Amino acid sequence: MPTTAPAFSDATASDSALRRFLFGLPGVDAVGLEARAASLGTRSIKTTAKAYAIDLAISMIDLTTLEGADTPGKVRALAAKAVNPDPTDRTTPRTAAVCVYPDMAATAAAAVAGSGVKVASVATAFPAGRAALDVKLADVRDAVAAGADEIDMVIDRGAFLSGRFLKVYEEILAVKAECGTARLKVIFETGELSTYDNIRRASWIGMLAGADFIKTSTGKVATNATPANTLLMLEAVRDFRAQTGVQIGVKPAGGIRTTKDAVKFLVLVNETAGEDWLDPHWFRFGASSLLNDLLMQRQKLSTGRYSGPDYVTVD
């Protein structure tokens, strides 16, 4: 089973040690955090930089459908859009991945085969995570066996909020072990963690347990990704790499719908973690409708006018 970064092995030796470590992290200045996020969100970019940002954002999208009404046909259509977002312009980048439930992973894998688009599958009793560990691990095994390249797991928020931090850590370790070569994204559901201090603590638990990405949200609650909570997580991965040499990705998900929103998040990445994270391997957007707006804005830059309502597919 994977172990934590050697520099922090003592921090995870016991429940009390982990608690001491987490409560020893610097407290979050909420006012300062929100002010910095708001300030960075006012940055404007030139036309050439905007064209680059739009293509970069497209390449970072985990194009997502996580509905009870998902069908193989819907997943195949989504996968086709991920592989070829704009059939009228073959220079449009592919998205990073398609994100689906485990029972749709095989359908998605077949649809994107050979394209370079990854298959991400949610798992561990998404979105609530209310299941026994053996059920959660079976969920992960099924998704990986079906062809998932990436697993998006949810933490046990009940355990976290009741202070059972080692349980959360050990569950992430167990899921990571089941992933094999698949990359693991750990979802905190920041809207349920209540405080920025809790988001910082959850970020460190995920990183110590071997997450490849830390992710804000499921998209299934009222408050999902925000500039402030994403900024806080970017600070965490920056600090973790500075202390361990290990780079970890960040994925804001839920509520990011416009090109303007996406550009704000890219500015946050550049100004906080740095250029090394401006790559789909290290930063993703969990989104369904964002791609359409990016395509519309991309065409506007190319032609000088907005396209008609039928230019992009309706999700």
Index terms:
315 residues, alpha/beta, 8-stranded parallel beta sheet, single chain
Q: Biggest sheet, in brief?
A: 8 strands, parallel
Query: Class by helix and strand content?
Result: alpha/beta
Spatial sequence of strands, sheet with the most strands:
7-6-5-4-3-2-1-8
* Model regions low in confidence, pLDDT < 50 over at least 5 residues: none
Overall strand count:
8
CA-CA gap between termini: 40 Å
| Strand composition percent | 5-15%
Overall 3D form: globular
Task: Walk me through what this model shows.
This protein is α/β, with parallel strands linked by helices. Helices cover 47% and strands 10% of the residues. It contains 13 helices and eight strands. It has helices at 15-23, 30-40, 47-59, 72-83, 105-112, 133-145, 157-161, 165-179, 190-193, 196-208, 227-244, 259-272, 290-303, and strands at 61-64, 97-100, 118-123, 150-154, 183-187, 213-215, 249-251, 285-287. The protein has an eight-stranded parallel sheet with strand order 7-6-5-4-3-2-1-8. Helix 4 (72-83) links the parallel strand 1 and strand 2. Helix 3 (47-59) runs antiparallel to helix 13 (290-303), helix 4 (72-83) packs parallel to helix 5 and helix 6 (133-145) packs parallel to helix 8. It is globular. The chain starts with 14 loop residues before the first helix and ends in a 12-residue tail after the last helix. The relative contact order is 0.15. The model has no long low-confidence stretch (mean pLDDT 94).
